[in-house]
Amino acid sequence: MAYRHFPLSILPLMVISMSLLNSQTILVEARQLLEVPLPELPKPKLPEIPKPELPQLPKPELPELPKPKLPELPKPELPQLPKPELPELPKPKLPELPKPELPELPKPELPELPPFPHLPELPKPTLPAFPKDVNPSHSTSP
Questions:
Q1: How far is residue 98 from each of residues 30, 91, 101, 110, measured CA to CA in Å?
Q2: Core-most of 18, 55, 80, 105, by most CB within 10 Å?
Q3: What is the pTM of this model?
Q4: Structure confidence by residue, pLDDT tens digits, 44-62
Q5: Closest CA to 25 of 36, 15, 33
């Protein structure tokens, strides 16, 4: 028996594919809009309008107000208080402790190390002599 119903999962794919087919015409129309030259229109000349002049108003003069005088307040006098005297406390005497005597420890003797083996002296490496008649900028190899 055959399945004759249209599968609904294909419907979103068809909508997306149809919308992608139409997008090319939008790009072409946008490019055509960008390439169309616009006609240059002459700028209209506006008549000059005079600036309105406002009449100058007189500045109002305010009367000077008298400054109020504050009454002088008497300074309060505080009585001098006597400084308290602290009695001298006797210093406590600490008993003298004898200095501890440390016993003298003998110095440990270090074992003698064996002498290093004698390495033979090697000659210094030298570079081979380079012929003076050869120009290094010219190459003979392809």
A1: 106, 21, 9, 35
A2: 18
A3: 0.17
A4: 888 888 888 888 888 888 8
A5: 33
Would you say how long the chain is, in residues? 142
Burial 102-140 (b: 16+ CB within 10 A, else e): eeeeeeeeeeeeeeeeeeeeeeeeeeeeeeeeeeeeeee
Amino acid at 114: P
Q: What is the 3-state secondary structure (H, E, C) of the chain?
A: CCCCCCCCCHHHHHHHHHHHHHHHHHHHHHHHHHHCCCCCCCCCCCCCCCCCCCCCCCCCCCCCCCCCCCCCCCCCCCCCCCCCCCCCCCCCCCCCCCCCCCCCCCCCCCCCCCCCCCCCCCCCCCCCCCCCCCCCCCCCCC
